[in-house]
Design a protein that fits this description.
The complex is a heterodimer. By secondary structure, chain A is mainly beta. In chain A, 0% of the residues lie in helices and 45% in strands. Chain A is built from no helices and 9 strands. In chain A, a hairpin with a 2-residue loop joins strand 5 and strand 6. The termini of chain A are far apart. Helices cover 0% and strands 53% of the residues of chain B. Classes of the chains: A mainly beta, B mainly beta.
Chain lengths: 108, 121
């Protein structure tokens, strides 16, 4: 089955840029979505279709996907961005949705 | 506005079954697939399966095949997830999610608030 690999944690000072990676075999051929989850809350979609943002999500959130790595980039990080972030793809070979293990973003 | 409202917390004994509901509002229930995802305490998201509310067609993650059943009641705009033969490691928060499909891709655009299922003797 398809595997998505994320770093367990990323830490950045406020105002800096956070980059959260999501590795997978030829993930650049797939469509990646990203969800943000704050403690005790349901996930929230922040990037879909590799690079698009749902309405209401700040422009500071952006995504890219190429080769074996997809990346969620959060510019000008704020304290309110502290959360777990999950990448997700549809694996057509198994007809399964697959989530990465999640990355905890800490704002120093 | 789109809302998915799930049923309340459950406590079950090992070997029992649990049925969680997900009531949709703010959109045409039969137009979008409903998926189910669970999350054990301190762990990541785990996909369980999908259901097409219009046709009733379903697909399940291999891990849950034979133990999970997804159904719906279109007159109530409600989807259901039933998990049987519960074990302690089924203790988790269970989420429903709506999947929107554009011309180019499908994605989870709305989530329910989650339902805690605790399995304990």
């Amino acid at each position: 089955s398809y595997v998505l690999t994320q770093p367990p944690s990323v830490s950045v000072p406020p105002g800096q840029t956070a980059r959260i990676s999501c590795g997978g075999n030829n993930i650049g051929t797939k469509i990646v979505d990203w969800h943000q989850q704050k403690p005790g809350q349901a996930p929230v979609l922040v990037v879909y279709d590799n690079t698009d943002r749902p309405s209401g999500i700040p422009e500071r959130f952006s995504g890219s996907n190429s080769g074996n790595t997809a990346t969620l980039t959060i510019s000008r990080v704020e304290a309110g961005d502290e959360a777990d972030y999950y990448c997700q793809v549809w694996d057509s070979s198994s007809d399964h949705w697959v989530f990465g293990g999640g990355t905890k973003l800490t704002v120093l | 506005q789109v809302q998915l409202v799930q049923s309340g917390s459950e406590v079950k004994k090992p070997g029992a079954s649990v049925k969680v509901s997900c009531e949709a509002s703010g959109y045409t229930f039969t137009s979008y697939d409903v998926n189910w995802v669970r999350q054990a305490t301190g762990q990541g998201l785990e996909w369980m399966g999908w259901m097409n509310p219009n046709s009733g067609d379903t697909g399940y993650a291999q891990k849950f095949q034979g133990r999970v059943t997804l159904t719906r009641n279109t007159s109530k705009s409600t989807a259901y997830m039933e998990l049987s033969s519960l074990r302690s490691d089924d203790t988790a928060v269970y989420y429903c999610g709506r999947v929107y499909c554009s011309r180019t891709s499908c994605y989870f655009d709305y989530w329910g608030q989650g339902t805690l299922v605790t399995v304990s003797s």
